[in-house]
Write the structure tokens for this entry.
Amino acid sequence: KLLKTFITVAHTLSFSATAEILHYSQSSISEQIKKLETNLNTILFERIGNKIKLTSTGEILVIHSKKILDMCDEAVLAISYFENDEIKGQLTVAMTETLCFYKLPDLFKEFCELYPNIELKLKIGNCYDFPIWLNNNIIDIAFVLDDKVNYTNLITKLLYEEKLVLVTSPLHPLAKFSELKLEDLQDQILVLTQKGSRYRAIFENYLKEQQVFCKSQFEFESVEAIKNFIKNGFGIAFLPETTVKKEIALKELVKLSVLDIDLKIATQILYHKDKRVSPVLKALLDLVEKFNEKVIY
């Protein structure tokens, strides 16, 4: 109880806001913090007027309190698993739109069928946000599309790599060429995903390095919107190959073969190194391992 109150105060930096969140009186919150400080023989917050700030020892306690509270929650779940012989609990998973719609639906469909008592929450975002969310314990695990990356405070597991490809409509003037040079993209119109997309950043950085400058860019939030836009012969898109396999097979889009472009992106999972692998999280990790070859191919 005291640690939960302390963590909430540390997050809000307000006794009154904490009282409202935890449904206590403000005086009760103050008493709980004072009791915790007495028990630990330290000062956790500096009080200056109406404002409070964590002390150095308070910042240390925040780190350990989160671990303790997580372990308490996991102990309750473990007892529940033992008594009911089933896995249940909550799992919050973050992923990019591309992974959510094109690569992982089958994985999570089976996960929900295997573990109907796990409450699964999905958060769609971009890869730049996920490490922050993991560090703040907002999510349990993230599926990312990115370069191969390593973080000092996160566990990273590579699932697979795939090609990034240039595609356009069969009606586009460049579609008739069996092979193109990089400079053929000069002054072409690009249709790209929104800023924050890692494969957009990879492509733009590569063009900049090669000093290739395209005429203009159109930006869409949705991969589906991009594909529908370029099907009419307007512009060139740069997307993970998985997202356009169907359209290429149906000859609605064509893949442009460009010399010297061999760019790839990696699907990876991330979770915090200090995150205890609960039975709920382990269930997902085990299923990912099983699905890995299916996802790749």
